[in-house]
Design brief:
Number of helices: 2
Structural class: alpha+beta
CATH class of the largest domain: Mainly Beta
Distance between the termini: 63 Å
Shape: globular
Order of helices and strands: HEEHEEEEEEE
Number of strands: 9
CATH topology of the largest domain: Lipocalin
Strand order of the largest sheet: 1-3-4-5-6-7-8-9
Largest sheet: 8 strands, antiparallel, barrel
Strand content: 35-45%
CATH architecture of the largest domain: Beta Barrel
Number of domains: 2
Helix content: 25-40%
């Protein structure tokens, strides 16, 4: 009887420890992603209805002081600067939310791409990071 109770106790303890370690592993992975992607990004490409805005047009906007960028903080907060209009955002591994609109994004090689129904904005990590 004691052996059976001991085996059951060991089994329950093992299951609990596995659950705790699994939960911690997920948080570490998310924390790593958040730390890796946090930073300041500048708009480098706009594609709307399949047509890319020429880079010269983006440069002209920047010359006129109309910049567009996004800053992502490690805690999941951030600011989207759309040509001087600042919007608070929240973000995670897959989405960026601004003004209750959730947008999927992809991240590869320091580039963050937000997609919408008919447009795609690509932001590139600032060179000083």
């Amino acid at each position: 009887m004691r052996k059976t109770v001991g085996k059951i106790s060991s089994l329950i303890l093992t299951v609990i420890l596995l659950a705790v370690f699994s939960a911690c592993a997920g948080k570490d992975n998310q924390t790593d992603v958040m730390q890796d992607r946090a930073g300041t990004y500048e708009l480098t490409s706009i594609v709307r209805n399949g047509h890319e805005t020429p880079s010269e047009d983006l440069a002209l906007l920047e010359e006129k002081g109309l910049k567009c960028g996004i800053t992502l903080e490690k805690d999941g907060s951030g600011v989207l600067d759309l040509f001087g209009e600042h919007r608070k955002v929240t973000w995670d591994e897959e989405t960026i939310t601004a003004e209750e609109k959730v947008r999927q994004y992809t991240y590869e090689d320091g580039q963050l791409t937000l997609t919408n129904d008919d447009s795609e904005l690509t932001f590139t990590r600032s060179a000083d990071q």
